[in-house]
Specification:
With 589 residues, the chain is an alpha/beta fold. Helices cover 26% and strands 30% of the residues. Strands 1, 2, 3, 4, 5, 6, 8, 20, 21 and 22 form a ten-stranded mixed β-sheet that branches. Strands 11-12-14-15-19-18 form a six-stranded mixed β-sheet, with helices on one face. Strands 27-24-31-26-32 form a five-stranded mixed β-sheet, with helices on both faces. The radius of gyration is 25 Å and the shape is globular. It comes from Photobacterium swingsii.
Length: 589
């Protein structure tokens, strides 16, 4: 019988970094009386991989000084988000995550936005494993250019055999000879929100987790940690459903766990929330903060203590503006610094010169070039909102969709219209010059390609209604507001209170100089992102295509940049294309 001992480990963790290698400018509202009120709004430089690296090195040193083992993990979604991903895809992430010392990473949904091969290419460059216990790769086509299944650094699902029960592969961390097992869990509805290859599948989270815990214990390990990309609420539920796990370290919902009211933000539970004997943690997003979980296991595998701290990682200069040009006067600056230095959820960090050198030598030059490449001029504020509100619909999303249709026509297709989901547009635009960096780094940071497809009018109607139903939970359990459709060369009314299946009215496309009603059995040509064209988040009716989606081999950002370059300026559309009549009646489910 295995003789177990107590074990103490500090686990530094990040999640949802989304290629934010550079610092972000964030605003604090500090409790300092001013002439204008009882709080002082100031901006600080926060996070970035150089500061994460410095913080991790310090936390590691402190752990060892206090007789604790140390581990550094990432809870998924390192892909997408900035120009660094647009330019370098997963390769920059792999090399920079290696450089800051990540030891294991969970599979996030955005890792699969571009299919399995981008993940496979990423893994060819990582020094750490990707944990995805409920990802079944056993049916993967091995004739692919770069299959995942043979890679030793993807710890995926292992089906039952005559010799072994089913379980998810896991890694083992040794703490003075005592073993801690770590396995990962990914969103089981991955095909609904990302683009995994159809020959790989995601299995039920709870079933696989229970199988894996059982096998780990049968193999003589009673101390277990889950690295999750399920979202905070699902992690809390899993803590209650799953026995025998000491901690769930999570991501996906960008939850800034802890009390940050001292900085003018809110409170999301205590850091290191204990629930049914399991500790649940999450550490914000965009490499702005570092979670530092101190986990003390009893000999029997139960948690004696779970503590630690979740800290924002700051530089030492503060300004009144996000562009960091309006400086505080010296006395005020010192008062702000003294206040922040006294806060337990703030850590001042120097930038790691090795990470800075890597960025400077391999990646920053191309990014800086795009930041100075002007494309056109934004003539007026262009507001983005996902679902139309009292101020109206998005003003920038329709221009983005116009670019998609323009791109399809440029490549020789007789495109009737284009459709894009609101969540694919990520920013409003202010008046002034528009650069390549603004487009690929802020407005359209998801490096997803465009696709052209043919579909009958009746399925178009169903897809538009399904997407809006999904966005507003109108009779369905939706996946979020990002599915709301914006369109080009198309117009319609969505009436929320109408009967399901008849909520899209007056659906028309502009053809030969006039608006014409969409006919159910007529086949139309459309352009969308690969995400929408493949039926995600309510658009599943588009899968009834007459012509399978064909890649244009152009990303969303590339199409918009090329289109915007042909325009002297960008202005808001002069008409509303989606007349959204919201739910204001009592009989809506």
């Amino acid at each position: 019988m295995t003789q177990h001992r107590a074990a103490k480990i500090t686990i530094a963790h990040i999640n949802d970094t989304h290629s934010h290698f550079e610092p972000s400018a964030i605003q604090f509202n500090l409790p300092m009386p001013t002439e204008q009120g009882e709080s002082l709004p100031v901006y600080a430089s926060c996070g970035g991989f150089s500061r994460v690296s410095s913080a991790v090195q310090d936390v590691k040193k402190q752990a060892y000084l206090h007789g604790r083992e140390f581990m550094f993990v990432h809870a998924g979604d390192c892909f997408q988000g900035t120009l660094y991903f647009s330019l370098y895809k997963g390769i920059a992430n792999a090399k920079l995550l290696n450089a800051i010392g990540v030891e294991a990473m969970a599979l996030g949904n955005h890792e699969l936005d571009m299919g399995n091969q981008t993940v496979a290419d990423f893994l060819d460059h990582t020094n750490f494993p990707l944990l995805a216990a409920n990802w079944d790769l056993t049916q993967e086509d091995q004739s692919k250019a770069n299959p995942l299944q043979p890679k030793p650094n993807v710890l995926s699902y292992k089906p039952a055999t005559d010799e072994s029960p089913a379980y998810g592969r896991y890694l083992v961390k040794s703490v003075d000879g005592e073993k801690i097992a770590v396995f990962g869990l990914a969103i089981e509805n991955m095909e609904g929100i990302a683009n995994p290859d159809p020959d790989t599948h995601f299995l039920n989270v709870l079933k696989v987790a229970k199988e894996t815990v059982s096998v780990i214990r049968a193999n003589g390990i009673n101390k277990i940690v889950v690295l999750s990309h399920l979202g905070y609420a699902r992690d809390l539920l899993l803590a209650e459903e799953l026995d025998g796990v000491g901690a769930i370290i999570g991501g996906h919902t960008h939850t800034m766990q802890g009390d940050f009211s001292n900085l003018g933000y809110g409170v999301t539970d205590d850091y290191a929330r204990m629930l049914s004997g399991t500790c649940v943690v999450q550490a914000g997003c965009n490499a702005m903060s570092l979670g530092q979980l101190e986990l003390d296991f009893n000999a029997d595998g139960s948690v004696e203590r779970a503590g630690g701290v979740h800290q924002l990682l700051l530089g030492r200069q503060f300004t009144f503006d996000a562009s960091r040009t309006e400086h505080l006067e010296e006395g005020q600056h010192q008062a702000v610094k003294a206040y922040l230095q006294a806060q337990p959820n703030v850590r001042f960090c120097v930038k790691d010169p090795e990470i800075e050198n890597l960025l400077n030598s391999d990646y920053r030059p191309a990014v800086r070039q795009l930041q100075t490449q002007h494309i056109t001029k934004v003539a007026e504020p262009l507001r983005h909102t996902r679902i139309p509100d009292a101020k109206g619909p998005s003003q920038i999303a329709p221009l983005v969709v116009d670019a998609f249709r323009w791109q399809g026509i440029q490549q020789g297709y007789d495109v009737d219209f284009a459709i894009h989901n609101a969540g694919g547009v990520r920013a409003s635009l202010n008046p002034g010059p528009l650069t390549s960096a603004d487009i690929a780094g802020r407005l359209l940071p998801f490096a997803i390609g465009l696709m052209v497809y043919k579909v009958k009018g009746k399925y178009l109607r169903q897809a538009l209604e399904g997407a809006i139903n999904n966005a507003i939970d109108n009779g369905v359990e939706g996946t979020g507001s990002g599915s709301f459709p914006y369109v080009s060369n198309l117009r319609f009314t969505y009436r929320c209170c109408a009967e399901k299946g008849a909520r899209v009215e007056s659906l028309e496309t502009f053809k030969e100089g006039e608006w014409r009603l969409i006919e159910d059995d007529v086949v139309y040509t459309s352009v969308s992102s690969g995400y929408t064209a493949t039926g995600k988040e309510g658009y599943d009716a588009l899968l009834n295509y007459e012509m399978e989606p064909v890649a244009l081999n152009v990303t969303m950002a590339e199409a918009f940049e090329a289109y915007a370059y042909t325009l002297s300026e960008l202005r808001a559309p002069d008409s509303i294309r989606v007349n959204y009549i919201p739910c204001q009646c009592a009989d809506v489910a």
